[in-house]
Design brief:
The protein is of the alpha/beta class. About 30% of the residues lie in helices and about 25% in strands. The longest helix has 19 residues. The chain binds ligand LLP.
C-alpha cells in the first residue's frame, strides 16, 4: 500500500516584513484595500485541495466523480471556478440551483439534494434538466414518480440510504445514524428495489449516503460504504442497473494545531481496495465512486480579516478583545463549539510579546470567536486574521443586529478581486 506524504503548504503561517502573508498576498494590504470584516478566499488553495483528491483517486485507477458541496461556500464566482476545475456540483436548495444556473454551470453536472425538497424545487430541477436528484424519502420517491408523468421524463435518481452508522462528530452534523431525519433505511431501500416497477418514471442511477461532516475517522466511512455497496447486488437481482455509489462529503480538517486532519490520500486507496474485495465477494462490478467534499475544499482556502476594537482587561480574570465581526459572519463557535486559530497580521508573535486573550464578536450578546488564544501583543486598530474560515462561514452568515455581510475577495495569480460585494445598509432595508 502506498501512503503518500502530504505537505500542507496552506497550513504554514508566513510573515514578510512583519506582515502576515496568506496565499502569497499581504493581508494588511487586503484589509486596507477592501476594508474589514472581510472574507478572503484563495483560488490556489481551492485548486490544491481539489488536486489532492484527484491525485489520490487517479492512483486507484477507478472511475470517480467529485461533486463540490456548494453549501460550504457558494456564489456565482465559485460556480465558475468549480466548473473550470471540471467538478460536479452538489446543491441542496432552489437557491443553490439558481446560483449555479445563473453562473451557467452545466445542469447535467448538478446534483440536487435535500431531505424536504419542495414541489417547486423539484419542478425547477426537472425544468432545468438537473443531472441527478438524490431522493431522500419515500414521500419524495412517490412525488417525483408522479412528476415524471407530467414531464414525460425518466428521471435519473440516486436513493439516499441511511446506513445506520455513527460518525463520531458533533451531534448537529451527524447524519448517518438510524435516529436521523436523513435518508431511507436499508430494509426500506431493499423493499423499494424489490418493487421498483412501481416507479416507472424513475431511473435508478445509484445510491448515496452521507454520514456526517467534520469526520476524522476512516472506519465509519468504510462501514457505511460496504453496507451501501450490498444494495447494488439487491438491485441487480431485480434487474436494475445502478452505476454510481455516492459516499457524500464529510472529510474533516484541523482548525487548530491541536486538531487532526482527515487525510484522503490515506483513506481513498484503503476505501477502494476494501470495496473491490467486497464487490468481488458480492459478484458485482465496482460502481463509479462519487464524493461530495465541501469543507475539505473550501475551509482551508479562506480566512476572515477583522479590525480589533475594544480591548478590555479584567484583572485576575482575562483580556477580552473585540473585533468588528462576530457570530453574524461566523456562527460556528456558537453552534458547534468550533475552534479556530488566529494571528495578528501586523506583528509576528514571539515568546516575549505573546498575550493570552479571548476574541469576542461585536454582537449584542456574548458571542465568542475564540475562547482563548495567544496573540502578538494585540492593540486597538490591529488587523486580525481568523484562519480556515472558508467553509460554512460566508454560507451561514446572517444580518443579526442589522449588520451588513462582509465582502468576499478572491486571491488568484498574485491578484485579488471582489467575488461578492460587501452589503450596504440599503441592502438591509431593501425588502422591508
Ligand atoms: N453531501 C451532503 C449530502 C451533505 O449533507 C454535506 C454536508 C456534504 C456533502 C458536505 O460535507 P462536508 O464535506 O462539507 O463535511 N454547517 C456545518 C456543516 C453541515 C454539513 C451539512 N452537510 C458546519 O459548519 O460544520
Amino acid at each position: 500500500m502506498i501512503v503518500l506524504t502530504v505537505t500542507f503548504s496552506n497550513f504554514m503561517e508566513k510573515f514578510k516584513n512583519g506582515h502576515y502573508i496568506f496565499s502569497g498576498q499581504d493581508t494588511l494590504e487586503l484589509a486596507k484595500r477592501y476594508g474589514t470584516p472581510l472574507y478572503v478566499m484563495s483560488q490556489d488553495i481551492i485548486e490544491e485541495q481539489i488536486k489532492r483528491l484527484k491525485n489520490a483517486l487517479d492512483l486507484t485507477e477507478t472511475p470517480y466523480k467529485i461533486y463540490y458541496a456548494g453549501k460550504s461556500f457558494l456564489n456565482k464566482g465559485m460556480c465558475y471556478l468549480i466548473d473550470n476545475l471540471d467538478l460536479y456540483l452538489d446543491t441542496v436548495s432552489g437557491g443553490e440551483m439558481f446560483t449555479a444556473l445563473e453562473a451557467n454551470f452545466p445542469p447535467e453536472k448538478i446534483a440536487f439534494h435535500g431531505s424536504n425538497k419542495t414541489e417547486a424545487e423539484l419542478r425547477m430541477a426537472l425544468e432545468n434538466s438537473i443531472g441527478l436528484i438524490i431522493v431522500d424519502s419515500l414521500t419524495e420517491l412517490d412525488q417525483l414518480n408522479k412528476l415524471g408523468d407530467e414531464f414525460n421524463k425518466k428521471i435519473p435518481v440516486l436513493i439516499r440510504v441511511n446506513p445506520g452508522v455513527e460518525a463520531h462528530t458533533h451531534e448537529l452534523i451527524n447524519t448517518g445514524t438510524t435516529d436521523s431525519k436523513f435518508g431511507i433505511s436499508i430494509p426500506e431501500v431493499e423493499e423499494i428495489l424489490d418493487n421498483f416497477k412501481n416507479y416507472s418514471n424513475l431511473k435508478l442511477a445509484g445510491f448515496h449516503c452521507h454520514i456526517g461532516s467534520q469526520i476524522i475517522e476512516e472506519k465509519p466511512f468504510l462501514i457505511a460504504a460496504k453496507k451501501v455497496l450490498k444494495l447494488f447486488k439487491r438491485a441487480a437481482e431485480n434487474k436494475l442497473t445502478p452505476i454510481e455509489l455516492d459516499l457524500g462529503g464529510g472529510f474533516g480538517i484541523a482548525y487548530t494545531k491541536e486538531e487532526i486532519n482527515f487525510i484522503p490520500e490515506n483513506y481513498i486507496p484503503r476505501l477502494v481496495s476494501a470495496l473491490k474485495v467486497e464487490a468481488e465477494k458480492l459478484g458485482i462490478d465496482l460502481p463509479v465512486l462519487s464524493f461530495e467534499p465541501g469543507r475539505f475544499i473550501s475551509a482551508p482556502a479562506g480566512i476572515t480579516l477583522y479590525t480589533i476594537g475594544v480591548i478590555k482587561e479584567i484583572p485576575d480574570t482575562r483580556i477580552y478583545l473585540s473585533v468588528d465581526g462576530g457570530l453574524m459572519d461566523n456562527p460556528r463557535p456558537g453552534l458547534y463549539n468550533a475552534n479556530y486559530d488566529a494571528v495578528i497580521c501586523n506583528r509576528e508573535i514571539t515568546e516575549e510579546n505573546k498575550k493570552s486573550v479571548r476574541i469576542s464578536g461585536r454582537a449584542c450578546e456574548s458571542d465568542q470567536l475564540i475562547d482563548q488564544i495567544e496573540l502578538a501583543d494585540p492593540r486597538e486598530g490591529d488587523i486580525l486574521a481568523v484562519l480556515k474560515t472558508g467553509a460554512y462561514n460566508y454560507s451561514m452568515a446572517s444580518n443579526y443586529n442589522r449588520l451588513p455581510r462582509p465582502a468576499v475577495v478572491l486571491l488568484y495569480n498574485g491578484q485579488s478581486d471582489i467575488l461578492v460585494e460587501r452589503e450596504t445598509y440599503e441592502d438591509l432595508t431593501r425588502k422591508d
